[in-house]
Amino acid sequence: MRKRLLCVLLAALCLLTACQKAPEPVEFSTFSMNTFMSFAFYGEGETENQRVQDRVNVTLRRLDSLFCVNNEYGDVNQINRSEGRRVKVDAPTAEVLSRSLELCELTGGALDITAYPAVKAWGFTQEEHRVPSPGELAELAGKIDYTAVGLEGEWVTLPAGMELDLGAVAKGYAGDQLDQIMRDAGISSALLNLGESTIVAVGGKQDGSPWRIGVVDPARPESYFAVVELEDMAMGTSGGYQRYFEQDGVTYWHILDPETAAPARSGLASVTVAAPSALTCDGLSTALFVMGLEDGTQFWRDHRELEFEAVFVTEEGEIYRTAGLTGRFSLAEGYEDREVTVLE
Ligand code: AMP
Ligand code: MG
């Protein structure tokens, strides 16, 4: 009798520990938008999980083909070859254009989605790098002007000679779409890593604590200098270290100043933006990198409605962060003695 009671107790204990074992996340990865992306989410059963995974992959494939400059059936490519004729685009293209053009305007053109002729001239698209002459740069700068993009519903016009490049915003837009897919499926905990530093945190971790995301040290891109805690927030980083080449001892990176068509030299090495929208993070991290610390800080003060916070790292390695990150920002192991200036 006593033996049987012991067995029942033991069985109950086993059941209890089995129940307490943390559920495993669904993890998968893919290559899209020229980058490696990885995803983790806590779902509800195998069939539903597979459906979510399929929706993520299908959405990424669709957005990639619409926005990729080299896909001749894609919207962006068709707009770029339109020679000024009206082009009918799909709804996501119209939406990303509309929202990006708003950011171009808000940032006074520091973000400019018509930078493609200059991006090409520097060889960043085909990885055949070159330094254009001052005369060529002046001509290229004249071709960058987001105000010339015409958008009426799903019809787009772009003057001949100009070309769009959604490289600064596409991953952010995709991040917001994937976030919606997760929420529609009732998922309350997920981490979506869209590569090259665009991250979306859906909810917090399974145990209720926030996701902890590292911020890359631009001077040593293999390590993180800080950790930002995110819950229902996105984060994006733009930095000269992400894509660059060197010639005659000078480093040239892929973030261009639309005014000069040359790499933006604002004194910054990287900018990280955290905000509810991944598109805001992506677009603003690029724009603030162009603006520099002073103008970028003023932009943050003037645009509270965008609900974003930022971390700036200068080329000298100084760290600045906005006051709204208090309690959510900490220096990483090995960086504890670095000074951080809080921007108010
Ligand atoms: P990100 O990595 O998000 O900062 O975006 C940089 C990419 O956007 C570059 O590789 C270019 O394709 C494009 N780009 C460069 N400079 C700008 C700019 N000032 N505004 C918009 N797009 C840009
Ligand atoms: Mg960007």
Would you give an account of this structure?
- The protein is of the alpha+beta class and 344 residues long.
- Among the domains are: 70-157, T-fold; 210-344, T-fold.
- Helix content is 34%, strand content 27%.
- It is built from 9 helices and 19 strands.
- The chain has helices at residues 2-20, 46-67, 75-80, 91-106, 116-121, 134-141, 170-184, 278-291, 293-302; strands at 26-32, 35-41, 87-88, 150-152, 155-157, 190-193, 198-202, 211-217, 220-230, 233-239, 244-247, 250-253, 256-257, 262-263, 268-275, 309-314, 319-322, 329-331, 340-343.
- The strands form 5 sheets. Strands 1-2-6-7-10-15-16-17-19 form a 9-stranded mixed β-sheet. A 3-stranded antiparallel β-sheet has the order 3-5-4. It has a 3-stranded antiparallel β-sheet with strand order 8-9-18, with no helix packed on it.
- Strand 13 (256-257) and strand 14 form a beta hairpin.
- Helix 2 (46-67) packs antiparallel against helix 7 (170-184), helix 4 runs parallel beside helix 8 and helix 7 packs antiparallel against helix 8.
- Mean pLDDT is 94; it is low at 5-19.
- It binds adenosine monophosphate and magnesium ion.
- Adenosine monophosphate is lined by residues 111-113, 115, 119, 124, 165, 167-168, 238, 242, 254-256, 258, 282, 285-286, 290.
- Residues 168, 236, 238, 282-283, 285-286 line the site of magnesium ion.
